[in-house]
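Take our chain:
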Amino acid sequence: MNALVVTGTGTDVGKTVATAALAALAGGRVAVVKPAQTGAGPAEPGDLAQVERLAGPVITVELGRYPEPLAPDTAARRAGRPPVKPADVVAEVELLGADHDLVLVEGAGGLLVRFDDTGGTVADVASSLGAPVLSVVRAGLGTLNEVALTAEALAARGIAHFGVVIGSWPDEPDLATRCNLADLPAAAGAPLLGALPAGAGRGDRQRFTEAARVGLAPAVGGSFDAAQFRAVHGA
């Protein structure tokens, strides 16, 4: 089984767009699992709808949905619904892994956001699966601390940090953002595997696939060259 867990270093860092980009470039049979969708009602499109729109024909599975935009544990409790537990996610990924070439798991928020009242997290999912974690990060000031904390939490649990992807590279990066291109790999203890352009998720599927190919490294199916990108855009 080939599984990859996608986490963010916070909310609104571009995690869903990055997951869609990974799925779009993966080739073969791809499945995307969203353990817990929060902030969406029963008939509203969630993150997986965006993945399907951008990445094309991939299998998507959502295990739990809660209407308020809160951490999954809190949202489930307030909705009076059972939470999604890490064991539920692991079982679904193992089932999908039997007939898919790649299973992507998109977490909610950051690595240690609680799924249930026992403190289960997406880190527990990665640990149980023996799957590496890819971190989607902010571009600007403050991201180095967030990345370092995520990397430290992964290392403490013996989870491989596959790499980092900047979820939204701005059209006009400031000094901190440009400096971060050199500093992010050191903070993460893992390579910079991409920088997706701001607004990439607003295009059609063809344009998105082109942006994904340019914005992600060969390790995940693209052509992004971190050294070259740093030479052009870094400080």
Summary: The first helix runs from residue 15 to 26. The mean pLDDT is 96. The two ends are 40 Å apart (CA to CA).
